[in-house]
Design brief:
By secondary structure, the chain is mostly helical.
């Protein structure tokens, strides 16, 4: 229960639930709502899945940013410096990589490869 049923402060939450709102705890929760834009074929295979995934098409900037990342956390400033791209291009590339589930953003604008 998001709030007491008799509290006027809970009316907004309760109304959203009545209209079919869903709990959002991570970017994954949002992406599942846009399945038609990001089909499961673009997701990395889970341990329960088998088969070969089709190759993801990355833009040149996404390729460059992805190549700078590793399995250790990097700040966005470090990604900008290592990639040699402008900050706006790095931000766009990181967002694209996150939506393709190749990169994960951690607290403090830290980034890491997802697999």
């Amino acid at each position: 229960m998001p709030g007491r049923i008799d509290s006027p402060r809970s009316k907004g939450c309760h109304e959203l639930i009545k209209k079919g709102a869903k709990l959002c705890e991570s970017a994954e929760d949002i992406l599942t709502e846009f399945e038609y834009l990001f089909p499961s074929s673009n997701r990395p295979a889970t341990p329960n899945e088998t088969g070969v995934l089709p190759a993801l098409e990355l833009s040149p900037n996404e390729q460059r940013v992805y190549a700078t990342l590793d399995h250790e956390e990097l700040s966005i400033d470090d990604v900008i410096q290592k990639s040699g791209l402008p900050s706006s291009a790095v931000s766009v590339a990181l967002l694209g990589l996150e939506m393709k589930r190749l990169v994960k953003q951690l607290p403090g604008k830290m980034f890491v490869k997802n697999h």
